[in-house]
Design goal:
The complex is a heterodimer of chains A (348) and B (165).
Chain A (H helix, E strand, L loop, with lengths): L1 H40 L15 H11 L10 H17 L9 E4 L2 E4 L9 H22 L3 H32 L4 H7 L6 H4 L1 H14 L11 H4 L9 H26 L19 H26 L7 H30 L1
Chain B lengths: L6 H5 L2 H5 L1 H14 L24 E6 L2 E2 L6 H5 L5 E7 L6 E9 L8 H5 L5 E3 L10 H4 E2 L1 H4 E3 L4 H10 L1
Parallel strand pairs in B: 1-7
Antiparallel strand pairs in B: 1-2, 1-5, 3-4, 4-6
The chains are: A mainly alpha (348), B alpha+beta (165).
Chain lengths: 348, 165
């Protein structure tokens, strides 16, 4: 019984820490970086008034969102209208249940995993399932708003997700064939000594990257939002913190995709410099910290890339998007799977 | 149906069709832009100084011995937005007439500069002030105390008028 209690306490603490981390790192830092980098690319300065270097700008933004009126259109379906942002954000956060932030720490003889369930043996399936559910939030939000622009955005989102989930899943199959396991932590452990999967799966990585852009509704695939065409897409009728939840979910999704890419292709929490340089023992807090920081740096580099692409590449037309998804990415993904299979069979 | 050929797409060569190299080129372009000098001006701290040709808030020229205005009322007459109200009175000075009341409603003013153009005394000119702020409608109606400005501050504009008017 005490063991059971201990597990619950441990998980609760971890969940609180991870949630805070997501809100701070992806919500606040993500928004800050997005605004700053977009400004730099456009030869502007960006937020620099609130706090040092404008670092408190995201908090001011969120405060503003909290103080805004929470509108539900008369013609909208209030239940689903309220439910939609909760689904979107909840699902975006739920993925972090299986993401390992480091190996393990030994405290008082217990090996504490850094992550809620990093060794779950269906982790990748869970991630794929959860990111797919995310589209329900967007679709429900667009449909329940009873606004034609919202509905169009939601429809686009659905079609886009279906088209790109296939190539995303198939791109992952390549990694799974190399790794031979679905557990994310196992995949990361296999990538030790800088044998990162990107070396074995370069094409798979590019496919996954493109699909991830579409999956997270980021430019150049931000058709569900498409401000110039659809006003605001699925979130046109949202205001206040409900809009904030959609907003946060977008950044959380970006972070999730970056995290998955880092975990599967760039060695996850494997340290950027060997832990032996600092004399860290496996299981020590120092090594765990180093792993966490390495993981964080890798994720941030991916997030920066996401932002960089958003402010460089114009939005796709809808037919171009579908052409790319079905006629280019899907055949390439299948070819990648076949090629991986043949090569691994020959090397056996 | 009139089918329009997508000529731009047809003109692309193989590498452009591959799309990835072109995206990399675009990313490189934006990356270089990140390190170029910024064009933003930090407004309240760093202010823009307009040229003499700038038409800002209209003001009355104030010389050492009082305002130039003789309250002829031409500005009020010509004002297309009906923003100016002048009331004349008499003094003991050589210039006998002076405006006892001169009001410009800045909510009506359209900064056209007709008042300045029509003024026979060069008494009302457009200043360089561009940040005009008020919180009530009463504040927006500027009286003589707000309109009079020493001639030394308006040299740029007066020089411009002498040259180009």
């Amino acid at each position: 019984m005490s063991e059971f209690l201990w597990v619950i306490i441990e998980s609760t603490i971890k969940a609180v820490i991870i949630l805070t981390l997501i809100m701070l790192v992806y919500g606040a830092l993500g928004v800050y970086l997005e605004r700053k980098i977009s400004a730099w690319i456009q030869n502007r300065i960006g937020p620099n008034r609130v706090g040092p270097f404008g670092l408190l700008q995201p908090f001011a933004d969120v405060l503003k969102l909290f103080l805004k009126e929470d509108l539900v259109p008369t013609a909208a379906n209030p239940t689903f209208h309220r439910l939609a942002p909760i689904i979107t954000l909840g699902v975006a956060v739920a993925v972090y249940a299986v993401i390992p932030f480091g190996d393990y720490v030994t405290i008082a003889g217990r090996n504490i995993q850094l992550g809620l369930a990093p060794n779950a043996n269906i982790a990748i399936l869970f991630v794929l399932a959860m990111t797919s559910v995310g589209v329900y939030g967007i679709t429900l939000g667009g449909w329940s708003s009873n606004n034609k622009y919202s509905l169009l955005g939601a429809l686009r989102s659905t079609a886009q997700m279906i088209s790109y989930e296939l190539s995303m899943g198939l791109a992952l199959v390549g990694v799974l064939m190399v790794a031979g396991t679905l557990s994310i932590n196992q995949i990361v452990i296999q990538q030790s000594n800088y044998h990162w999967n990107i070396i074995y799966q370069p094409l798979g990585f590019i496919l996954f990257l493109v699909a991830a852009f579409a999956e997270t509704n980021r430019a150049p695939f931000d058709l569900p939002e498409a401000e110039p065409e659809l006003v605001g897409g699925y979130n046109t009728e949202y205001s206040g913190m409900k809009f904030g939840m959609f907003f946060l979910a977008e950044y959380a999704n970006m972070g999730t995709s970056s995290a998955i890419m880092v975990l599967l292709y760039f060695g996850g929490w494997q340290t950027l410099v060997p832990g032996g340089w600092f004399g860290f023992e496996p299981g020590s807090i120092g090594l765990a910290l180093l792993q966490f920081v390495s993981f964080f740096i890798k994720i941030e580099i991916m997030v920066l890339f996401f932002i960089w692409v958003r402010w460089s590449v114009p939005r796709f037309r809808y037919d171009q998007l579908m052409n790319l998804g079905w006629k280019v990415l899907l055949p390439l993904a299948i070819a990648n799977v076949a090629g991986t299979g043949i090569v691994s069979l020959l090397l056996k | 149906m009139n089918k329009v050929a997508n000529t731009e797409a047809q003109r692309m060569n193989f590498w452009e069709r591959l799309y990835i190299p072109e995206i990399a080129r675009g990313l490189g372009l934006t990356f270089i832009e990140m390190f170029k000098p910024r064009v933003t001006r930090q407004y309240p701290e760093v202010r823009w100084e307009p040229q003499g040709s700038y038409r800002g808030r209209p003001v009355l020229v104030n010389e050492d011995d009082g305002e130039r205005c003789v309250a002829c009322g031409l500005c009020s007459r010509v004002c297309p937005a009906l923003a100016i109200e002048v009331q004349a009175s008499e003094t003991d000075r050589i210039k006998e007439r002076y405006p006892v009341k001169f009001e410009i409603n800045m909510l009506r003013c359209i900064f056209c500069g007709f008042c300045e153009e029509v003024c026979p005394e060069e008494a009302i000119v457009m200043s360089k002030e561009y940040d005009i702020v008020f919180q009530t409608t009463d504040e927006a109606i500027l009286g003589k105390e707000n309109l009079l400005k020493p001639v030394s501050e308006l040299q740029d504009r007066l020089e411009f008028l002498r040259q180009w008017k």
